[in-house]
Amino acid sequence: MGFYDDGQFRSTKNRGPGSSSLLRWLAVVVVSAVIGSATTMAAVPMLLQANVIQAPAASNANLQNMSYHNLQPVSVKVNDSVVQAVKKVRPSVVGVVNYQMLPNSSGTSTSLQEEGVGSGVIFSSKGYIVTNYHVVQGATKVEVVIHKKTHVYATVVGYDPYTDLAVLKVPSSDIQPSDVAQFGNSSTLQVGEPAIAIGNPAGLDFADTVTTGVISATQRTMPVIDAATGNVIGEQTELQTDAAINPGNSGGPLCNIAGQVIGINNSKIVAHGFEGMGFAIPINEVRTIINQILTTGHAVHAAIGIEGESLSAVPAEYQPNVPVNYGVWIVNAMSASAKAGGLQHGDVIIAIDGHKVTGITSLRSILWTDYRPGQNVTVTIYRDQQKMNLTVKLGELPPPSNSPSSSSSGSGAPNSSGGSSGTNPLSPFGAGN
User: Fold this and answer.
1) What is the pLDDT of residues 126-138, one digit of tens each?
2) Burial of 281 per CB tally in 10 Å (0-12, 13-18, 19+)
3) CB atoms < 10 A from the CB of 72, how many?
4) What is the location of CATH 2.40.10.10 in the chain?
């Protein structure tokens, strides 16, 4: 894959008809070139003497005395900005090793074994590290490798399956102030600006591998997959980049040219025929989830209590009779508060407290960014041609049914019914763990 043969380069064996004529043509070209060069070399001195052409400004003596040892070397700086950005960020990048109790080769017993390796980013001098949830999912113990040499067990502070993020803690004595990453602002990113990914593709043997590219898009709706089951548990808006992201990069930083972390790498498209389509969780969302985990031990997501679909994705035969082409079509009002607020099947949500709702991802972003469970919000809907404002009390999004409800209190990651910190089985999306 990746090799293109257009027939221009052929083996010298088994030439077909016409090969001899091609050789004769090439011979004529070569002989003509030699004759032309010789003629030019002989004619130039005579033309100079006759003043038909002018010599360069330097004297003939200087030209004759010029030699190659007079040439001075030229120093060229290439991608100096990238080099400086990498130097700034690299100390904050760590390896994250997932250890699980796995069967021995005989199959008669189990022992603690390495299941997968990902990456992480130090964001606090107190020893806090952010990584992907799927990197530590199912682990009995989690080991962090700092500066490619210091191995230390980490405690899982908390995690959020819905955003695929987890926060780890190592002793602060192992962290230097220069190891702490600086977070940027993902809301100001522009398509086409440089992007730098750093991580551990293929494990610790290739630790701190740097790849570069650009921001390909700033708002891609991607599925969130539970690594243990392969089930889709939600969607989130992510950054797209063509910087190479490979298994082992998950949890590592996507940086800008200033050496600021602008995203946490978590997936790429690995379907046949695709190349250079990697994805990262925007750092503004990462910052929000980190703060929630550090405050409560887990992420808190407000929910409106419905099962819905983006109106643009609803098949034509089910399209409601509404005067808009955006919003969220309610399939079912699930919670008691949603029903009490008056939401029902067929309604189309177009705004929350005046914030325009364009689809499912937009609704989730508004609720998760600006609201907490228990708050009352004004939900603007269309019910057929009638526009209505309803008051609904927000609930809390429950954890996925196949995920543990709380994190481990000891050294290690939350246990699950299975899974691995290996490649996130996004199908056809494969994560860069």
Assistant:
1) 999 999 999 999 9
2) buried
3) 4
4) 91-179, 186-300+422-430
Q: Cβ distance 243 to 254 under 8 Å?
A: yes
| Rounded Cα gap, residues 77 and 291, in angstroms | 40
> CB within 8 A of 255, min separation 6: which ones?
85, 86, 89, 184, 195, 196, 197, 198, 261, 262
Strand-pairing partners, residue 121, are 93, 130
Q: At the fourth CATH level, which superfamily is domain 186-300+422-430?
A: Trypsin-like serine proteases (2.40.10.10)
- Largest Cα separation within the chain, whole Å, is 103
Torsion of CA 249, 253, 259, 260, to 10 degrees: 170
Nearest Cα residue to 375 out of 358, 398, 354, 391: 391
Q: Has residue 387 got a pLDDT over 70?
A: yes
The alpha carbon dihedral of 183, 188, 189, 192 has a sign of negative
Whether the per-residue pLDDT at 198 is higher than 60: the answer is yes
The CATH code that applies to domain 91-179 is 2.40.10.10
Active site residue ranges: 134, 164, 250
Average pLDDT, the chain: 80
Q: Are 383 and 347 in contact (CB under 8 A)?
A: yes
Tell me the average pLDDT across 147-163: 93
Can you tell me the mean pLDDT for 363-379? 90
Residue burial 300-334, b: 16+ Cβ < 10 Å; e: rest: ebbbbbbebebbeebeeeeebebeeeebbbbeebb
- Closest by CA to 144, choosing from 410, 406, 411, is 411
What pLDDT, on the 0 to 100 scale, is given for residue 53?
55
Give dist(CA 306, CA 331) in Å, integer: 7
DSSP string, 290-345: HHHHHHHSS---EE--EEEEEGGGS-GGG--S-S-S-SEEEEEE-SHHHHHTT--T
State how far the Cα of 28 lies from the Cα of 36, in Å rounded to an integer.
12
Return the higher-pLDDT residue of 224 and 421: 224
Report the alpha-carbon distance of residue 7 to residue 26 in Å, rounded.
18
3-state SS, residue 44: helix
Handedness of CA 223, 226, 227, 228 (dihedral sign): negative
| CA gap 177, 124 in Å, rounded | 8
- Give strand ranges (E) for 136-256: 141-146, 150-160, 165-169, 194-199, 209-225, 232-241, 253-255
User: Looking at the chain, which residues constitute the CATH 2.30.42.10 domain(s)?
Assistant: 302-395
Q: Are 253 and 260 in contact (CB under 8 A)?
A: no
